[in-house]
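[SOLVED] Predicted holo structure with flavin mononucleotide

Edit: marking solved, answer below. Original request kept for reference. I posted the sequence and ligand SMILES and asked for the 3D complex as structure tokens.
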Amino acid sequence: MLSDVRVLVISGSSREGSFNRQLAAVAAGLAAQAGATVTTVDLRSLELPIYDEDLQSKGLPEGARRLVRLFAEHDALLLATPEYNGFPTPLLINALDWASVMPAADGQPSGSAAFGGTVAGLLSASPGAFGGLRSLLATRQFLQMNLGMLVVPEQFGLVRADQAFDAASALVDAAALAGVARVVDAVLRTARALKAVAR
Ligand SMILES: Cc1cc2nc3c(=O)[nH]c(=O)nc-3n(C[C@H](O)[C@H](O)[C@H](O)COP(=O)(O)O)c2cc1C
């Protein structure tokens, strides 16, 4: 088994008990089982203020630099984001906006260079009946069209997320686990194929 693929795992919600955090953790576990090196980043821990161009002109926050470094060090992204009014969360968009304006410095690539070519797989969890489908579509467009990531066609929206996990945060439904596994598998296969071509 190849073990050279590095995967960043991000949840668009950092709240205690977040369904998306739990879903991201399931995806992280599957990726690790499949031999990937996995890094989970908590967006709240980056302590990013709301993006403002005046703030940017005063200096870029260390959390944005950290996020760019993480993207530069990883081949792929597994992202689980909630849907807020049809869109991914402000927590996620704000973090990616900050990282996108980061210029290259001290041997670290710019944010846009670090994002470019990252293989991404999308997940969403919602207590509702549609599993965050609209946010999946908006996130796909954002990552692909604006940030230059390669988003795999497979995606998974977890419906009725408030009933989907057991006390150990495992998915109760085998079909739901298979849905996450399809996304993880597509991301790892694509990232590995691209790495093999680049060698
Ligand atoms: C401002 C706001 C808007 C929301 N809009 C939607 C929505 O459009 N579709 C949906 O399925 N759930 C929506 N929800 C409910 C979230 O799916 C729910 O709060 C979910 O638990 C958030 O994810 P988390 O558990 O990972 O924090 C919304 C919640 C908030 C706070």
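OP edit: The helical segments are 19-33, 53-58, 62-73, 90-100, 111-115, 133-146, 174-198. Thanks to everyone who chimed in.
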